[in-house]
Write a structure and sequence with these properties.
245 residues; alpha/beta; Rossmann fold; nine-stranded mixed sheet; 6 helices
Length: 245
Amino acid sequence: MMLTLKSMDEIHASRAQLRARSIDFMDRKKLGLWPLPYHIRYRMPLPNADLIKSWDVARATELIEQYISDNSTPLLDMGCFNSEIVYALHKLGYKQVHGCDLNPCCRWMPFWTSIKYRLADLTNTPYADKSFGALTCMSVIEHGVPLEPLANEVTRLIKPGGLFIFTTDYDATGAPHEIDPKFRVFGQSWTIFTPETLAKLVDLFLSRGFTYLNPTHLDGSHTQTPIHWNEQDYTFVMVALKGPG
């Protein structure tokens, strides 16, 4: 499966959907007192959930609920810092939600007594082989992640036939993107994928035995570029793959 964000209207509709399902964590009340220990530990407030990520979170949670019916299935979000999907999956009743990130602040994110956060490099995590029935990687891959090592690690971690969902920054319009090579986000570089570079990324997984989830639904097209950041206009793409076996 491949989906693209078509417009800002989809973002607002996705946020409304999350709100209707009581998994909208832009509403700080849904976090209860959990931001307090984070604030005490790091002497800064917990970042707010990001409206712009509404589409990613809504679509990914839908897919996980559709394909992962056993709520005891271990799930991992790779690059979990300030990733609303871990909160949403916990709220939806999944009992083994994990998250890992290079940012040490992830360890005190909300629900840390239930969600198991780890400080870890996405390409070299501490988890055992075939640990997870689903893995997510939401708006992370574009930030300097070594892609072949990532493909190797996801292949190692996923259970046979498990689900891997990733989203990333994307533009299929052919517009040029001149990003200063010295520009850093969380200390990492930034790229916007094109259809060609995205195909090369997906091929890393297909060559390791992954297949597209719902291969009849591959839509990498868009006309609008609703995301504007750092003087760039682009959109998001989501890819859902089924693990080998």
